[in-house]
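agent: user wants the structure for Reticulon 4 receptor-like 1b from Pygocentrus nattereri. delegating to structure tool.
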Amino acid sequence: MFKRGCGLEFLLVLCGLELSWSCPRHCICYSAPSTVSCQAHNFLSVPEGIPPHSERIFLQNNKIHRLLRGHFSPTTVTLWIYSNNITYIEPSTFQGFTLLEELDLGDNRHLRTLSPETFHGLGRLHALHLYRCGLSALPNNIFQGLRNLQYLYLQDNHLEYLQDDIFIDLHNLSHLFLHGNRLWSLHQNTFRGLRALDRLLLHHNQLQWVDRLAFHDLKRLTTLYLFNNSLTELAGECLALLGALEYLRLNDNPWECDCKALSLWDWLKRFRGSTSSVGCVAPVELAGKDLKQLRKEDFPNCSGSESLHQSKTKSWAGTDKVSLKQEPQPAQPAQPPQTHPHQPHLTEQFPSSPSPLPQPPPAINGVQAGPGGSSGVVTPQRPGRSRNCTRQRNRDSKGKGPNEVHTSKEMADKEYSSPDFTGKYDHTSPDSSTTRRKHKCTPRTSVRPPSGVQQATNRGNAYWPLSFFSSTVGLLVLLSTGFILR
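agent: tool returned. relaying tokens verbatim.
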């Protein structure tokens, strides 16, 4: 007969099972995959005792101030630290994290600056969240080597400019969120290298000027949002480079519908995708009218202006070849040219803008109000595109309107379909219909462990996973039955 308390231990040893696992105080830990959830406990620093082989670490909604090297293990695959008080990240914090796929540092409003080396070496990173971090500038080479990155969230910061070639290594980036910043100009090489980009959100900025070649590498772009800026003109040649474009939003800009608008008017007449209204504010006789609805007779004294078709034939036919020739090899990306932040980078190969460059806007106190959280416009995936393996998650929203941005769940299957996880992305329709987003300030649903997993006590007690317990009970029943029959 088994001694009391010894039978269970004996069976566990026979099965090769460990008797305990460590878990930080106040946290929840479980395996398959190994996960540590320490969210919403007012931690002032990263808690001690995180198992060294943890794959998923959830530290959101705490008060953590600093991230230092040694806080996490290189085995980490998913790391959420959004909605904390992070002000400093040691440059080597994520050094050697070759397995990291998702890093969420969003909603750390006092982060403000990052070292250029912060994300170097994260070759498998799919999603990087830096929204609402108080960033006023991005250092050169901050995204160097992130060739597998697909989602980059930079919205609701204080960015005033983007230097040339800042995204040149992001060959697989499909979503770039830049709305809710203070950007006032886009240069011809701002987006160079983003040949896989599908969605570019630039609304709720202070854009006054866009170079004619600003989008010359965006051959696969399907969605472009430029609404709620300060644009008075936009060359039709600029949009003619976007051969895959399907959704365009230009409303809520002070458009001047004079001769400068003729090429844009010509392009809009030819475009077969979805566009918003383009409301004219000048000249006086056209104020309040939609540029798309104007007739050629509404542009008197503009006979000398070239049409979009003519200008494309003369000036822009060789754009692709020139761009390819000037782009450096991926293995050795070129250093961003040292130009003044508010002057476009012009080269001999590309003609300059036909209009004088406007002066930068005066400084303001705070970011211009935007729609809030992370959002993207998602259309059905086309055959042949690489499937994204990044989990979709609901973000917040402050404003709703005719330009709501849509994101669908592209990975509702596999492990990301588990009810243990709350979505962090927003959901509206691509034609700007109703939204189902939740406000960011509302506390998110906690990540719950599967049934049978116990929360660690203040003493850091160990737990037994449900599967081990079930196996043990079954073995005990079999042994007891055999003993009784004898």
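agent: one observation worth passing along. The first helix runs from residue 6 to 14.
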